[in-house]
Amino acid sequence: MAQTVVKPQRGPQERFMSSDADIIIYGGAAGGGKTFAILMEPLRHIRNKNFGAVILRKNAVQITVEGGLWDESFEVYGGIKGAVPRKSPKLQWVFKSGARVSFQHQERDEELFKWQGAQIALLEFDELTHFTEKAFFYLQSRCRTTCGVKPYVRATCNPDADSWVANFISWWIDQETGYPIQERSGVIRYFIRHSEKIEWGNSREELYEKFDLRTEKERIGVKSCTFIASNIEDNQILLEKDPAYMANLKSLALIDRERLLKGNWKIKPAAGLYFKRSQIGAFLESIPDDVVTWCRCWDLAATESGENGSEPAATAGVLMGKRRNGRYLIADVVNVRLAAADVRKTIYNTCVMDRSRYGYVVTRLPQDPGQAGKEQAESYMKYLSGFPVVVKQETGSKETRAEPWAAQWQFGMFDLMLGPWNDPFVSQLESFPESKFKDMVDAGANAFSEIESGIFNLDSLI
Q: What is the band of 374 on the pLDDT scale with cuts at 50, 70, 90?
């Protein structure tokens, strides 16, 4: 019978598996083999019948999603003789000796009390930036065991400039460029929480002396920690199995490309990082004859005046098309400040004109959460009866919704019809997300999302 061999790849994954630090934070980019590494870590203890490990995600869906943590665990544990997967009462692998690896979630700090009484030998966080600092340190207090294994913590992460993790591992990151300092990757440092502040040292002895820690009870609070950087280049197995994954990372918009491909911990949304005028493919004088999908998406603002006399938000409608050659076209943009009744009439009249000029055009409208949003959506559906209309709730931040559109814009895949709307439209895009108004960006992002859903395509209607 063929023997199953599970071992780390050379490089960062091997350093992750060989370090004896109390806490290791691993990753800092996509595709570096992070999840596989934290699944491998418990294997060194599976002959210990009393050993128990817990692998955490922020929520349960992240564990069981297609191709996620639970599915990937079968690649690591599935070939081990006597290993049994269980789904009830919780997701868990039980090994021949009785050792266990459990998959659980921790979403809200208010639920931390459920861990009272827990004894965990190995605690692992998959995507640490998704957890709060409070949850991370509280759950470490549950790292205690009598199984003979000194309790320890392992974690993976992708860069997030706004997370507490960015500050926690700042010594390992170049604060000018945001990239990991390769010479420091895997170097162990030591910390202690003193007067509610994390204090760092290059050795345990340095902290013992600095804070006059004389007894073993006092010194036990000093923990060793390291950050080990990895990226897609370190995961040759993935590149061999799925060479297109690198292309997927390279096709991301600039901010996500810097974060997930290059491991940049300092990159943040700023004006000019999403859309630039110089990235427009061309300005066209006539509509191409190969447009296969049209969508006009609206961002609604039913106000005539802003708060405290400030300039009010506008209602924006962006008409976007996709051509057979894969390029995109923005044919028209409406951006007006109107009362609610006038907004409805404007949308109706625009539907009439769009059908006359462009044929089959899907109109997409946003739906606010709650009953009022549902009633407004139903009202619009009735009012625009006879036109193809979809109403959808928006999810995620404005920046997150804009990223897929921005990725194609940055690769020069968008052309614009010449029109008086060109300059105000492009100016708002260039200043996003720092600009006061983002209505045209929101409308464009949702139009792109609707087009890419592939539901409405003129070729399919012929």
A: confident
